[in-house]
Design brief:
Blueprint lengths: L1 E5 L3 H13 L3 E6 L2 H11 L3 E5 L9 H12 L5 E5 L4 H8 L7 E5 L6 H12 L3 E3 L1 H10 L9 H11 L4 H8 L3 H14 L10 H10 L3
Parallel strand pairs: 1-2, 1-3, 3-4, 4-5, 5-6
Pfam family, one: GerE
Protein name: Response regulator transcription factor
InterPro entries: CheY-like_superfamily (IPR011006), NreC/VraR/RcsB-like_REC (IPR058245), Sig_transdc_resp-reg_receiver (IPR001789), Tscrpt_reg_LuxR_C (IPR000792), WalR-like (IPR039420), WH-like_DNA-bd_sf (IPR036388)
Length: 214
């Protein structure tokens, strides 16, 4: 897989590049600011972008906005965004930036768990949505409405959905059948006024229901 990395911290940038190469990926560009990210993606046409949220020149949300702009140009571009802190607004904005490709929002601390980070990279590249478990936990802890309508099991299922887990993976984690998982998902979607349909991104909309109002 061909990857473009954008991170202004040299040590972190090189560390991410090393991890990706360790797992057999090709780092075709590693840059330190948002304009360079946009230029590198347009030139290299990578299979995945990994970018920090805050980068030069303003150190606000330049990396995030560059990623959103690139997804507007190419809705099939998978993007994994890294953040130092939990920013619900940033996560929501990223998840809303197109539905044809994988997208992920992870805290930088997650890079330290090599296997978990590599798994997130693979899942985003494969078209899945991955939200950092700490972000999910904070959202579920803060929301009261319509969270109060969900059963404890539905909350567990929603948290695992937000982490990008498939029905089979959720079933394994909770030691239940896939049929039971599907039933819980249908129930929580209905309670969130998101009735199940043929749109696979209803899972993303379920998470966004919390991100928008947290």
């Amino acid at each position: 897989m061909r990857v473009v990395i954008a991170e202004d911290g040299v040590l972190i940038r090189e560390g991410i590049a090393g991890l990706l190469r360790r797992f057999g990926h090709e780092v075709v560009a590693a840059v330190g600011d948002a304009p360079a990210l946009v230029a590198a993606v347009r030139e290299q046409r990578p299979d995945l972008v990994v970018t920090d949220v805050r980068m030069p020149p303003g150190f606000s949300d330049e990396g995030l906005q560059a990623a959103i702009a690139l997804r507007a140009e190419d809705p099939a571009l998978p993007v994994l965004v890294l953040s130092q802190y939990i920013e619900q607004t940033y996560a929501a904005e990223l998840l809303e930036s197109g539905r044809r490709a994988g997208v992920g929002y992870l805290l930088k601390d997650r890079i330290g768990d090599v296997a978990e980070f590599a798994d997130a990279v693979s899942r985003v590249a494969a078209g899945h949505t991955v939200v950092d478990p700490d972000v999910v936990a904070q959202l579920l802890g803060r929301r009261r409405d319509p969270l109060t309508r969900l059963t404890p099991r539905e909350r567990e299922v929603l948290a695992l959905m937000a982490e990008g887990r498939s029905n089979a993976a959720i079933a394994r984690a909770l030691v239940v059948s896939e049929a039971a998982v599907a039933k819980h998902i249908n129930g929580l979607l209905a309670k969130l006024d998101l009735p199940p349909d043929d749109d696979v991104h209803r899972r993303v909309r379920a998470v966004l229901a919390y991100l928008r109002g947290a």
